[in-house]
Amino acid sequence: MTIGAGKICIACGQNASSLDDNNSVYCYRHYQIFDSLKNELAARQASSTTSNMSWRDFLLLKKRENHDPDVQKVVETELYRK
């Protein structure tokens, strides 16, 4: 989602142009949370040969476990994307 030349974070509506990554849809703060969630899921999957947790299942787990408002925004945004 863009407005004019700037990009808007899909989680909070703030300016997301502070990131160099042109594909990012998050502001810096929410991108850090998103990246951390992706890395945590990858680490879980790498550490267990039986772990086949999907991105959606992982997000649902995080939604129940972590009640930080910013984490909740990213989780909810990712759950309802696409």
Task: Tell me what the structure shows.
The protein is elongated, with a radius of gyration of 14 Å. The protein is mainly α and 82 residues long. It has one domain. The longest helix is centred in the middle third of the chain and has 20 residues, at 28-47. The mean pLDDT is 86. The protein has a two-stranded antiparallel sheet. It has helices at 28-47, 55-65, 69-79, and strands spanning 2-3, 6-7.
Keywords:
single chain; 82 residues; mainly alpha; two-stranded antiparallel sheet; 2 strands; 51% helix; elongated
Short structural description:
The protein has 82 residues and is mostly helical. It is 51% helix and 5% strand.
